[in-house]
Amino acid sequence: MKRFLILVTLSLLSFTALKAQKIDTLSITLENIKYPYPIKFLPINVEGQDIRMAYMDVPPTIAPNGRTVMLFHGKNFGGYYWSHVIRALAGNGYRVLVPDQIGFGRSSKPIINYSFKQLAQWNKKLLDTLGIQKTSILGHSMGGMLATRFALMYPERMDKLLLENPIGLEDYKTFVPVSTVEEQYQRELKNTAESIRQYYKSSYFTVWKPDYESLVNVAAGVTFSADFPRYAKVAALTYNMIYEQPVVDEFKDLKVPTILFIGKEDKTIVGKGLLSEDQQAIHGLYRFLGKNTALKIPGSKIVEFEACGHIPHIEIMTEFLVALTGSL
C-alpha cells in the first residue's frame, strides 16, 4: 500500500508538472502572448535569410499633433510591456511606433552577426517604409543603447532622444570577464523561472509585487519551447553585441536633444553573474551613473526617480508618464 501511495503521489506530481509546463510554454516568437495593439511585419533579408520585424503602429486617440514616438524595448522584453506608455502617448496626440527588434519578441530569431548599427538601419527602414520623416525615440535598457546608436547615425531623423535606465553607461569590457558566445549560450540554456525571478528582484525592482510575475512568465515560458536552444543562442549573440559594442565613449558626440529618466535604485549590470560580490557593489549604480552620463551628453537633462529600479514605466507608472509627456 505504501509503495502504491508513493507511486500515485509521484504520478500526480508528474501530471501537475506537465500541466504547469503546458500552461507556461511559450513559443520563442511569443504568438501566445497578447500584445496591446495589432501586430504588423516588415520583411527583411539578411545574410541570405528572409526574416520579419514585428511592430505596432498606433494612431493618436485624440486630434493628432503631427509627431511620432518610437519605443525601443530592453533585452529581456518586447513591445508587450509598453501598453500603458502607448496609451498615454496616443492619448496626447502622438502616433506611437513600437518595434520588436530582430531577435526579440514577435520578430524573427535568426542566427546572425547582431550589431546595433544594423538594428538601427532596420529601424530607419521601418520609418522610411511608413513615410515617417522624424521621430522621438524612447529607449529602455538595451533599447537605450540602440536609441543612442540610432541618434549618432541619423540625428536628422530625430526630435528627441529619451533614455530610460539605459544599459551601457559603463564599458562592461573594462570589468566583466570576457566570455565567448558558446560560454554565454551554455549559461542561457540554464535559465529557469526561479533564476530569472531572482535576477529581476535583485536588479530591476525595489519591492517585488505579484504583478511582476507576468514578466517572469514570459521570460521563463520560452524555456519550455522545443525551439529554446535557438532563443538561447540569439540571447548569447545579443549579449555579445552589448559587450563588444559600447556607446559610453560616444555620448559626447550626441547632437539630438536628450533627456535621461533614471530610477536611482537600479543595479543592473550586463554580466553581473560573472562578478564577485565586491565587484557588484561598485558597478551598476544608477544613482551615480545617471548623473555622470548627463554630464557627458551636451545640453542633456536628467529626471531622477527615488525608490525606483530598472523599469520606471512599470514600477512608478504614473510618475514616469507625467515626466515623459511633460518632457515631450
UniProtKB/TrEMBL annotation:
GO MF: hydrolase activity
Top-level taxonomic group: Bacteria
GO cellular component entries: membrane
Keywords assigned by UniProt, alphabetized: Hydrolase, Signal
Domain AB hydrolase-1 intervals: 68-315
Signal peptide: 1-19
PANTHER family assigned to the protein according to its UniProt record, in alphabetical order: HYDROLASE, PUTATIVE (AFU_ORTHOLOGUE AFUA_2G14860)-RELATED, MONOACYLGLYCEROL LIPASE
Official protein name in the record: Alpha/beta hydrolase
Source organism (scientific name): Pedobacter jejuensis
Record lineage: Bacteria, Pseudomonadati, Bacteroidota, Sphingobacteriia, Sphingobacteriales
